[in-house]
Design goal:
Elements lengths: L1 E3 L4 E7 L12 E7 L10 E3 L3 E2 L3 E2 L1 E6 L2 E3 L2 E2 L5 E8 L4 E7 L6 E3 L3 E13 L2 E12 L2 E2 L16
Antiparallel strand pairs: 1-4, 2-3, 5-6, 7-10, 8-9, 8-12, 10-11, 11-13, 12-13, 13-14, 14-15
């Protein structure tokens, strides 16, 4: 796990996971991160890396991405963007915003408006994935599809 940002305290602990799921282990590692102070606005950003003992991590680097709005840098707990570069050269830009109405520029690469999005560059191809968002790069959409059902086929 990689954490981005500045934090006052990080605690690693062994705890009991929820007991209401069959097959849960008897104990599990937990991470607790805190900031201390008055009038804090904190966003905790973490990336969980795929890793195995034979191949190591698939991730080459993880870094925060600059976010701008109307040409001005945005430093807010309401939106965060992360650039994840994989060993195979693919780059994933991952964006999460609690301000779902404003349009932001991510890394001077693409525009974003919504809650969550992934913008992937792999060679010549660009792929996008949205969740509760209306804009990601060239992709514009509505946050919901609506309509009327006129008929349907019943099971026999």
């Amino acid at each position: 796990m990689t954490m981005l940002g500045d934090y006052d305290e990080v605690a690693l602990t062994d705890g009991v996971p929820p007991r209401n799921k069959v097959g849960n282990p008897t104990s599990m590692d937990y991470v607790f991160i805190t900031n201390a102070g008055r009038n804090l606005e904190s966003a905790f950003v973490s990336v969980f890396e795929p890793y195995d003992s034979a191949n190591g991590s698939a991730i080459q680097s993880i870094e925060e991405v600059e976010i701008t709005q109307d040409g001005k840098a945005v430093h807010s707990y309401l939106i965060k963007a992360v650039k994840v570069t994989l060993n195979n050269g693919r780059i994933d830009y991952i964006v999460c915003s609690y301000d779902t109405k404003s349009i932001y520029r991510i890394g001077d690469l693409f525009d974003f408006c919504g809650y969550f999005g992934v913008y992937t560059v792999s060679g010549e191809k660009t792929m996008t994935w949205l969740h509760d968002a209306t804009l990601l790069g060239e992709m514009k959409t509505s946050t919901a599809l609506t309509g009327k059902i006129h008929s349907f086929t019943k099971d026999q």
